[in-house]
Each structure stands twice: as C-alpha cells, then as structure tokens.
Amino acid sequence: MKKKKSGGGGANWMDTYGDMVTLLLCFFVLLYSMSTISEEKWRAIVTSFNPFAQETPTETGGTDGPVADPADESQGGYPAEPDVAAQRELDEIMEDLFLAFQQIAGQEGMESSIQVEMSGGKIYVKFSDTVFFDGDSFDLRPEAEGILLQVCECLNQASDAIEEIQIQGHTAQGSAHKRNDVEFDRFLSSNRATEVLVFLQLNSDIHPARLVGTGMGQWRPISSNETPETRQYNRRVEMVISGRDLKAEELGEALSTYITRDEEDMNQQTP
Predict the structure, then answer these.
(1) DSSP 175
(2) Would you give the end-to-end CA distance of the chain in angstroms?
C-alpha cells in the first residue's frame, strides 16, 4: 500500500522570513534609539548585556543628538577651522614686511650689503658681516645700530603676524686649505648672532620667546672659500622671520603656548 506524500509545510519558510524581518526592524529601532539616547539609558543597555562592564571615562565630540553641529566647540564638537580671512590678513602683513625690508636694502650703499628674499611664508634677510662687525669681532659697530633700529621699526609694525625670528651667525673659512679653530669659530658666530638678538629684544616689541640665536660657524657657506673675494659672502648674519600659522596654533604647536604661560607667570608675581 502506497503512502501519501505530505502536502503540508510548504509555506514554513514564511515563518523564518517573518522572524528575520522582525529582528531587522528591532535592530534598526535600536540603532535609532541609540542616536538620541541619554547617558543613563546607554549605561542601562550595556549593563543588560554585560553586568560586569566597567565604565572608562573618554572624551567624545558632538552632543546627544545626530543634528549637533560638529564645529560648535560650546556643544563639545570639534574645533572650528581657523578663520581664512584672518590668516590672509596675517599673510598680507608679512608681505608688507618683506617690502619694507626691500626698501631698507635699496638704500644708498646698502645694495651689496643686504639681501632680502621671501619663500614659503618666511622672510630671509642676509646682512654682510661688514655691516655689523669688524673682522674677528662680535662688537656691534655704531653704524649697525642705525640699520637695526630701522629693522626694529619694521618688525614692530608686523609684530602681530610674526611667529619666530631666528638670528644665524655665519663665518668663513679663513684659509682655503685649513679649517678654522673650532672653539673660536663657533663662539664668534654665536656671539655675533646673540649681539643682534639682544639688540632686537631691547629695541623691539617682539616677545623674547620668539627670538632665537644660532651660531652656524663656517659650516653653512653660500660661496667658495678659495679667495678673499668669495669668502666675504660667507661672513654674514642671517635673519629668518616666520609668519604665524593659525592652524598650527589651533593644534597647540605654536610659540603662543610659551608666551601665554610667561604672561600668566608675570601676572602672578607681586611687585
């Protein structure tokens, strides 16, 4: 006797499909609820899954909802991008400073003694050592003070846009076939840079934290040391002026951190 084939159960897959759709709906509802969930509700959900969970403090951006403005720092969002117009204004001040230095270099008798260049937001000013110092000396000549006073006046007008001023002292190799005495060479270049730096600190509005003096010795030549005529180009004082970068300041990578700390310390001191 033949057994009849069972005709039932043909639609059993509908039950599984319905369960899957229900689970998906619950999943998306859960995601939506998490987007606007409060801290207490979130803690309750985590605890329901893991009663032994431990809370770890973390810093997060944004607010309780998905419509929070990520650039609004008052609501815990990410820091806003630096003002483009403000950065452009600082760059224009640096360009004006460059033109002012060019005017100083264009004065009668200064054409061969001062060279000015601008590149990558920095101004490079090269002073021949004969402008500032006598041979093997780091005492400023009287004529140098007049030039440096003009430099200070230009720096004061652009002080808001200046990040750092680096003064570099350079010497030349005295003999084409013999290097300089290391101690004398290094001290001479460092002392020359320091003399110029001290003058700027005493006669300009630039904060001392923005002034840096460096002695390069004979090791950064821009010409040959073969003849006295070529060696004179290597004997120089260079001034490298960097402009402010608002983006770097937002990241805390600027000198303003030290300057703010110094000002706070000064305010705390009693007379």
Answers:
(1) B
(2) 117
Q: Is 3 a residue whose pLDDT tops 90?
A: no
Per-residue confidence at 116, pLDDT binned at 50, 70, 90? Answer: very high
Query: Is residue 181 helix, strand or coil?
Result: coil
At 19, the pLDDT band (50, 70, 90 cuts) reads confident
Show Cβ contacts of residue 180 under 8 Å, excluding neighbours closer than 6 positions: 171, 173, 174, 217, 218
DSSP 209: G
What does the DSSP 8-state code read for residue 139?
A: S
Q: What is the pTM of this model?
A: 0.66
Distances (CA, A) of 99 to 93, 94, 124, 261: 10, 9, 12, 33
148: nearest Cα among 239, 219, 231, 228: 239
What letter would DSSP give residue 109? Answer: T
Residue ranges with strand state E in the chain: 114-119, 122-128, 162-170, 211-217, 236-243
The dihedrals phi and psi of 10, each to the nearest 5 degrees, come to -65, -25
Order the strands of the 114-119 sheet from edge to edge: 114-119, 122-128, 236-243, 162-170, 211-217
pLDDT, one tens digit per residue, over 20-79 is 888 888 887 777 766 655 667 767 777 776 666 666 665 555 555 444 555 555 545 455
Spatial separation of the C-alpha atoms in residues 113 and 99, rounded to whole Å: 17
Q: Rounded to the nearest 5 degrees, what angle is found at the Cα of 189, between the Cα atoms of 106 and 197?
A: 60
Neighbours of 26 (CB within 10 A): 10
Contact 82, 56 (CB under 8 A): no
Measured at the CA of 253, the angle between CA 191 and CA 197, to 5 degrees, comes to 15
